[in-house]
Design a protein that fits this description.
The protein is mainly alpha-helical. It contains 15 helices and four strands. β2 and β3 form a beta hairpin. The longest helix is centred in the last third of the chain and has 37 residues.
Amino acid sequence: MTKPTSTQQAIERWFRQRGLPLFIDGYDARTQVWTRALPFLAVAFVALALPLSADTVAAAAKALAISAAVVLAGWAAGNLIDRRAPFARPTSVGFVELGAFVVGVGLPHGVDGDAEGAVYAAVSAGVVLAVTYVVVSYGVIPLLIWVVRRLTRSLPQVRNAAVRALPMLLIFIALLLYTTEIWQAMATLRGVPFVTTLVLFAVVALVFVSGRLRADSTGVEQFDSWPAVHEAAAGTPACTLAGDGDGTPTPHQLTQRQRRNVLLLLMSSQVIMALTVAVTMGVFYLLLGFLTIDEPLVTAWIGGAPRVWLHLGIGDRQLILSEEHVRVAGFLASFSGFYFAVYSVTDPTIREGLNDDSTSQLRTACAARQLYLDARQGATAPQA
């Protein structure tokens, strides 16, 4: 594979900044995902490998030294396999290095005699690697930054959407806040079942939103003419590249991973808005419950004494913030986010203000990708 030109490198940076790294030609995990994640993985390694149960500092240092030796051995082995100097900066990271990471974080705990801690650390390392892969390979962080900036520029549309959706939501959820059954259910719903309930709302919302938006990505990479490509790519680094000028551009079909990357871009606006609504509603109902639902009322509703975290006297009234207040507010916040996520992809006005803009941005990215890939294949040259 040829080295990208300066123009092509600028286009690749542009793709990354918009959360579309999979549009880059030859993008793979070994050379472009794990290598970019190395600084974070180094910090995560130290945090996971630190044997907090060690009896002495010397024992902890010894365990960490053994763990570091394993990682260095994996680093050197990976470089030697790729025919590089043993401790050269990795240009690719494969199974050898990742295996050393997982084994290395568990060794300090094993040396310290904490077998359970070693297993927990190794499993945690695997989870960290999985999450890191998803976040880096799909450009989640730059995508979120870019979407937040775009939503900030679209505040009038966002405000109008909230004004239409929130009044009915406020009324409906307010009725639930003063429903005895909600408090009784939340009083006994703790730990994993409670978290699972909240996550269930998020998963169902994501499935519904992705199902409604999937159709918007169909055929987005196809263009009828080169002028249409250049018009869509105007303002991008790819605008300096010239197409054939005649005929219809040969489309570069999106792979399944690229389509998932595209779907993530389309969903981002709705997800961030729904999350904002959920947090706002959670804080509002927590404050409302704190001000209006006192300890005797909570006791009557749940059939027992609440777990009080905070007492505050105002005049002759005693306000409390209890664990039950927080759980009820969290449940209502999750339901609010779910409601708004569904509403944002079914209400035509909101879709016109948000989704059409996302589709337009995606169309621009696909036009830049068309010119970029043609340039990589030698079919496109810079404009004179």
